[in-house]
Structures are given as C-alpha cells and as structure tokens.
Amino acid sequence: MRLLKMMTGATLALAGCAAPQREAAPHPAGSPPAQIRSVTYATTPCHGFCPVYSVTIGADGAGVFTGTRNTAVSGERRFTATARQVTDFFARLHPYLPVGERLLTGPETCKTYASDLSSADVTWSGAGGNGHLVYDYGCDRGGNQALAEALRGAPQALPIADLIGKR
Predict the structure, then answer these.
(1) DSSP H helical segments within the chain, as ranges?
(2) Which of 6, 16, 135, 167 is the most buried (most CB within 10 A)?
(3) How far apart, in Å, do the first and last CA atoms of the chain sit?
(4) What torsion, rounded to 10 degrees, do the Cα atoms 156, 157, 160, 161 define?
(5) Whole-angstrom Cα distance, residue 67 to residue 20?
(6) What does the pLDDT look like over 55-65, one tens digit per residue?
(7) Crossing angle between the packed helical segments 145-153 and 83-93, to the nearest 10 degrees
(8) What is the pTM of this model?
C-alpha cells in the first residue's frame, strides 16, 4: 500500500510537469480541503514598489503575516481567519499545489520574460504530502493564466488587506 501511494505521488508530480494542471471542482464551503494542513504564501521583490511579505495559515485559521517591504505593516503580526476564509484561500490554491516541487521560474522556459516582476513562492503541508511551488510573474509560458490569477487572488481570501496596504 505504501509503495502504491509513493508511485501515485510520483506519477502526479510528473504529470504536473508535463502539462498545465486543470482546475479541480471547488471544495464545499465551511471546511478546507482535507489534505492541506498549512500553507505559506510569500511574494518576492520586484523592481518597483510591490509589496513583499509572507503569510502562513493553518487549517485552524491561525495565521502569521510578516511584512518585509512596501507593506502597511512591517514585521510579524498574528491574525485569525474564519473557516470560510481558510477554505476559500486553500481552495483557490489547491488545484495548483504540487506534491514535491514545481519551479516555474527563469527566462529559459519563457516565451517572453520581464525581469522586473515579482514571484509567488508557496509551500504547503498536508496529509497528502508536502509541496513547493514558485511562479515567476515575469515569465509568459502560455497556458498558465489560470495559475497566475489564482496565485494573485488567493491572498484576497484572507483578512490581511490592511496589513499589505491594499484596499
């Protein structure tokens, strides 16, 4: 059974590299996707004034925001998200979270590349394993628009807008 799980995980990880992942059906309101225990979502610097921060949130709603640069709040702030906010945040990211690592960065894999944009760096842990996704917004690969929109929009599900400084 353990070998079967490992083979399934490896197959899914390879499938994620071969083609863009499709959107999964939304999860029911009120409970986060069962396999996700926690997610850390971070933004990287750009050549400009984009906010640089990280936010870690557990399935229980306990969260930590750390503002680094160009945010309304610098340093660490704790917050609590409602069950609905956690479910929404996890569900926005869930279809794109790999088991293992998926790095969508670097100009060598892009049709066009803008070096002055930030990236989203997402790590997660859960019953189904752990994963790490890095998505460079400056890289146009074609076919990843849904992923880019999901990553950009996911933080809007959490009660951190005043910490980031966006209204």
Answers:
(1) 2-18, 83-93, 145-153, 161-164
(2) 135
(3) 49
(4) 30
(5) 31
(6) 999 999 999 99
(7) 160
(8) 0.79
